[in-house]
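Consider the tokenized backbone below.
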């Protein structure tokens, strides 16, 4: 709807330019916002205030001219001037109701992408395999997953890339440990964290071991068969740990999405050669770098992207350049999104710039770092265990499920054990994910079990429960949300407000896809659930005054239910029919 209002305004502008009321060559970005207060209409634009100066008119006078020039549109019932010169648009409820009926009739809820569909690479999760996944990997995994789902739903072709760290110097240490005592090591590998610690201990205690570890890295990188076998074995185990976490988190990642750093190993020499051929390479203390004038250090000197160390080894940035080239030239991506900690912002800005200058990516390919903030503990400091260690993701999820279990059992002591477990899983895991997804991606946030498991406020339990309330309306009636006769009529104030919100689903999803921010969808679902509550309270369904009214309200409830369910699914939350 915002788009069609922007269209109407554009047509009015074109007309006023042709009539000489507005000067030629104006090409403003037309802003249209949803109004907070429905007595001021449904949408507002500040266009008259923006253009008053170039037009040499008072904003309210220009607003009047614009209203006169606006083409008639059946979905707009009236347009008014407000305050200093806002244009307030009132949508026609019959036209709105028709749009809602169309959404209800469509399995895809009439959601579509604004603009052309694209082929999008989503770089997500990407843990280092030397260690077990810890809470630091949660955000990349679930935010990336939610955005990937939304883009797919909008019609984009999404290629998930799990750029795991499987090729660092730590692997020498791990291989040395594995080689030293294969049998013991195998059993210890069930706990990667412990395995890593044990290997590190050996490394720190024994100079001879450390030396062997360094030799093994060299052998590994030179393609030694025995080394590769050990390395493969280690990665298999580590990846199977990751896969368990993904499945448990209900994240759409599979082993096929893994394309780790090692996959680009054979291309790194070529990347450096290509940079040289382009005249981009400099030497600095034996290391090979690309200096970028627009990035400077504290002393004002250009910062380098180091692509090869003096000893010949390649770096994280070199691999990223190779992966960008692959994503552009091999995968033919129009857009690549990197869900990686905000602290790597400079790395990505610089790597993107080098990739562009070197022609590693097509000139119109969009490269976007979707950085995120830190997950902190209640004390506002990075989340740690009581003794200061990193929190393993599995432990966190165990605790979430356990807490949800007690909570649900407390509220519902008669539930069967299996159902209780199922609800506890959906609520516990959902709560952890939702708490994260509902914050703005770039902000830090404090992890707080009590808050995320509360049934009040913008939380998973609240929304999952809101959905079960809608579902129960239909269960009591013995009908399904998908087979309803009649049509929607928006009469009561609560029906109008709910209807207007429902019509925004497609716009919200487009926002999530464009900016990579799932919190927009969370706020939307939260508002929607709130509007449904007041509708449900003020507009009786089963005791409606007429059959037509009852059908209309049922249809509104059904569209709410389906939108909530679809929205939660796009966030990667499992919904429940009852809880
Ligand atoms: N493995 C890296 C880390 O844990 C993240 C990789 C992100 N993706 C990328 N293409 N650099 O910090």
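A designed sequence for it:
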């Amino acid at each position: 709807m915002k788009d069609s209002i922007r269209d109407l305004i554009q047509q009015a502008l074109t007309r006023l330019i042709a009539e000489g009321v507005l000067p030629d060559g104006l090409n403003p970005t037309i802003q249209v916002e949803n109004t907070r207060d429905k007595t001021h209409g449904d949408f507002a634009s500040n266009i008259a205030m923006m253009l008053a100066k170039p037009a040499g008119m008072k904003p309210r006078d220009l607003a009047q001219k614009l209203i006169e020039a606006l083409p008639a549109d059946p979905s707009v019932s009236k347009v008014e001037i407000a305050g200093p010169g806002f244009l307030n648009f009132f949508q026609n409820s019959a036209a709105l109701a028709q749009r809602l009926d169309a959404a209800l009739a469509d399995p895809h809820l009439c959601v579509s992408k604004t603009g052309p569909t694209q082929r999008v690479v989503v770089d997500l999760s990407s843990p280092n395999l030397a260690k077990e996944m810890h809470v630091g990997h949660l955000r990349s995994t679930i935010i990336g997953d939610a955005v990937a789902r939304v883009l797919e739903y909008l019609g984009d072709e999404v290629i998930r890339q799990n750029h795991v760290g499987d090729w660092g110097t730590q692997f020498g240490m791990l291989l040395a440990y594995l080689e030293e005592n294969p049998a013991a090591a195998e059993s210890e590998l069930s706990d990667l964290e412990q395995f890593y610690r044990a290997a590190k201990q050996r490394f720190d205690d024994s100079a001879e071991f450390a030396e062997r570890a360094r030799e093994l890295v060299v052998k590994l990188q030179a393609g030694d068969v025995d080394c590769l076998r050990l390395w493969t074995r280690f990665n298999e185990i580590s990846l199977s740990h990751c896969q368990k976490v993904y499945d448990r988190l209900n994240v759409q990642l599979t082993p096929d999405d893994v394309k780790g750093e090692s996959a680009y190993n054979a291309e790194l020499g070529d990347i450096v050669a290509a940079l040289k051929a382009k005249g981009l390479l400099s030497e600095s203390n034996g290391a090979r770098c690309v200096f970028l004038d627009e990035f400077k250090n504290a002393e004002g000197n250009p910062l380098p992207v180091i692509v090869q160390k003096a000893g010949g080894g390649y770096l994280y940035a070199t691999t990223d350049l190779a992966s960008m080239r692959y994503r552009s030239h091999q995968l033919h991506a129009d857009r690549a999104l990197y869900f990686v900690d905000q602290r790597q912002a400079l790395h990505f800005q610089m790597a993107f710039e080098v990739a562009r200058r070197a022609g590693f990516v097509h000139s119109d390919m969009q490269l976007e770092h979707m950085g995120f903030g830190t997950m902190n503990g209640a004390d506002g400091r990075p989340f740690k265990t009581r003794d200061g260690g990193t929190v393993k993701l599995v432990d966190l999820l165990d605790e979430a499920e356990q807490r949800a279990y007690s909570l649900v059992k407390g509220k519902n002591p008669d539930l069967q054990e299996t159902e209780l477990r199922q609800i506890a899983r959906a609520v516990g895991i959902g709560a952890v994910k939702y708490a994260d997804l509902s914050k703005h991606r770039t902000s830090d946030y404090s992890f707080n079990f009590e808050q995320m498991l509360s049934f009040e406020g913008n939380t998973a339990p609240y929304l999952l429960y809101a959905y079960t309330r809608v579902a129960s309306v239909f269960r009591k009636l013995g009908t399904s949300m998908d087979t309803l006769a009649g049509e929607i009529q928006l009469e009561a104030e609560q029906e109008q407000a709910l209807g207007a919100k429902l019509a925004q689903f497609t716009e919200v999803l487009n926002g999530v896809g464009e900016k990579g921010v799932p919190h927009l969808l969370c706020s939307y679902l939260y508002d929607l659930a709130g509007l449904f509550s007041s509708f449900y309270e003020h507009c009786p369904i089963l005791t409606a005054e007429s059959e037509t009214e009852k059908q209309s309200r049922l249809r509104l409830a059904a569209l709410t239910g389906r939108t909530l369910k679809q929205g939660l699914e796009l966030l990667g939350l499992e919904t429940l029919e009852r809880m």
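The mean pLDDT is 93.
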